[in-house]
């Protein structure tokens, strides 16, 4: 994990029994190189967080649930806003919807200064971010869209959306106040787009994925402060 | 609503379109007398919050869900911890479980200084609380068990449990940290009993109801502080 991941996320993962190896994202240390060295040294199997067909398929079960609920509600056409880092969740959902609810289209949502997917979708090729760290939405900061995920996104998704940190904090507060859910900043970007970027979304029906609740109390407090 | 209800709860209710009439619980103003006067004056139909068969039946659908999930998991014997104010939720769940999962027993959980149900269950008759207001768990502070609910609880439930405010705050923090749920203090009492009163609970399997997330940011902040 990046050394600047939330302390809560690192602690929760250790509580589950994992050995957490930290790396310096801000200083440019490569997670890929570190992973490769650990695999070599200990004879491990590497499971990538997004560029991995079975991870994408697993995250796609969220798309199966969306398709089932949309069918139950009689929804045939909609946009699904999905928090996007490396693109595994977005790609998995897009594949599931292609098969089960072809009128429902994925829109990726990213933090404004880490919108590599939105820019890559617009350019038709994979582009990176200027920064590798910093910003509020640590969990979905990735260097660029994945090798496996990007072609899926390019084929199936609409234009990418990007949201600012203030809107993310306000969305976290709305999730707290109305939905009674704890969302981490990166997990709330799609909700922020749904609430505050309506003019960029097509159609009447918006479906929104909230994913991830590993947020330190101090950051959560910043979100609650937006309630005034 | 009591004038000392969370500002968030009052605001959320008004947002839903309701007219909220406040009363002074701490000063001993009677909600029942106020309700009766409004009914008379405006020709309204009174729906009591717990001493109302259809409210109890509606809350009992939570018991149907518990029975269904227990069956799916192969659970035949368990204790279900339920936050208890006037006893509507507890009574509804107890009735549903009597019909659908008779080996699963309800245990009411209350704040320590407002444990009228636990004392009433022990005494075999309805007893009141010394105080009518104050304390952390505003939503489940009621003067005494209901006329309709208490006989159901007395027939179907095990001994009542009571928890202290510190344990409630710690349970809210656990819900935040592990379950990613926003629980109000009164909604977290059963989780507090499950986490910190294990010695008072029989058997291996504990089912816990978390109900209600209307909590002001300041109170939520108190809970997060227990994470240290």
Key structural traits:
homodimer; 228 residues; alpha/beta; Rossmann fold; 2 domains; 4-stranded parallel β-sheet; 45% helix; 9% strand
The helicity of chain A comes to 40-55%
| CA-CA gap between termini of chain A | 34 Å
CATH class of the largest domain in chain A: Alpha Beta
Q: What spatial order of strands do you see in the largest sheet of chain A?
A: 3-2-1-4
The strand count of chain A comes to 4
Residue-averaged pLDDT of chain A: 94
CATH-defined topology of the largest domain in chain A:
Rossmann fold
Structural class of chain A: alpha/beta
At CATH level 2, the architecture of the largest domain in chain A is 3-Layer(aba) Sandwich
Largest interface: A-B, 16 and 16 residues
Count of folded domains of chain A: 2
The DSSP helix count of chain A reads 9
Major beta sheet summary of chain A: 4 strands, parallel
Strand content of the residues of chain A, in percent?
Answer: 5-15%
Give the overall form of chain A: globular
| Strand/helix succession of chain A | HHHEHEHHEHHEH
């Amino acid at each position: 994990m990046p050394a600047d991941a939330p302390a809560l996320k690192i602690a929760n993962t250790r509580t589950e029994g994992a050995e957490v190896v930290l790396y310096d994202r801000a200083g440019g240390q490569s997670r890929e190189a570190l992973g490769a060295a650990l695999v070599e040294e200990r004879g491990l199997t590497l499971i990538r967080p997004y560029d991995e067909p079975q991870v994408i398929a697993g995250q796609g079960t969220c798309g199966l649930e969306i398709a089932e609920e949309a069918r139950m509600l009689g929804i045939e056409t909609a946009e699904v806003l999905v928090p996007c880092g490396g693109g595994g969740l977005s790609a998995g959902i897009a594949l599931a919807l292609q098969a089960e609810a072809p009128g429902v289209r994925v829109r990726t949502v990213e933090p404004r200064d880490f919108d590599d997917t939105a820019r890559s979708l617009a350019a038709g090729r994979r582009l990176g971010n200027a920064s590798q760290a910093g910003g509020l939405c640590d969990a979905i900061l990735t260097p660029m869209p994945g090798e496996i995920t990007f072609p899926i996104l390019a084929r199936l998704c609409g234009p990418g959306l990007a949201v600012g940190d203030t809107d993310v904090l306000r969305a976290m507060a709305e999730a707290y106040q109305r939905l009674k859910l704890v969302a981490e900043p990166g997990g709330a970007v799609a909700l922020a787009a749904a609430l505050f970027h309506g003019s960029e979304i097509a159609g009447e029906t918006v479906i929104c994925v909230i994913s991830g609740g590993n947020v330190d109390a101090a950051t959560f407090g910043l979100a609650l402060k937006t309630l005034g």
